[in-house]
Amino acid sequence: MKLIRYVAAGLILTSQCVFAAQDNPKFGVVDVRQIVEGSAMMKTMAQDLEKQFNPQKEALVKLQKQLEESTENLEKNKATMSPKDRKALEDSINDQRNQLAQSEQKFRSEVYQAQNESIGKIMDQVKVKVSEIASKKGIDVVFSSNEIIWSNPKIDLTNEVEKKLK
Predict the structure, then answer these.
(1) What are the 10-residue block averages of pLDDT along the chain, 166 residues in total?
(2) What is the CATH number of the domain that holds 70?
(3) How many CA atoms lie within 13 A of 58 on its CB side?
(4) CA-CA distance, 156 to 22, in Å (whole number)?
(5) Residue 127: closest CA among 30, 15, 49, 46
(6) Phi, psi at 81, each rounded to 5°
(7) Residue 108: exposed, middle, or buried by beta-carbon count in 10 A (0-12, 13-18, 19+)?
(8) Would residue 4 count as lying in a domain?
(9) Count of domains in the chain?
(10) What residues have CB less than 8 Å from 4, skipping those under 6 apart?
(11) How far apart are CA 106 and CA 13, in angstroms?
(12) What letter would DSSP give residue 97?
């Protein structure tokens, strides 16, 4: 995080040197988080991911129920089970736990990757719209408001970008 701040500070200082030759550089600010979280594209993405990963989610729930049933069966019947049967059931439970853990990890990884890809696509569209607005208004640099402590509301382009994305 510190590295990002140092890089951002360096870019700002460098941009000041570049803009020193210009008369009045213009800056803009965009709240990227607000744009992404409030966008129709984000809502559509969430629905698409839900549809895509719902079968896997249901399979995980089924595996969890099977594990719970096996564990309950062991607890209820272990006093009357032969050592061989109890050992077989314990091994089966351990296998189910391992399978569930691996399946959950794979599921989380796939969901995370799909979310990142979708957000990347949304961000690409946001960048295009920001670029269009900045060019139209003659703005030289647009910063993310997440990295700015304060800015004049007059230079906030967030609402314009949101309108362009609809």
Answers:
(1) 46 51 82 90 94 97 96 93 94 96 98 95 94 95 90 89 86
(2) 3.30.910.20
(3) 6
(4) 22
(5) 30
(6) -85, 150
(7) exposed
(8) no
(9) 1
(10) 147
(11) 44
(12) H
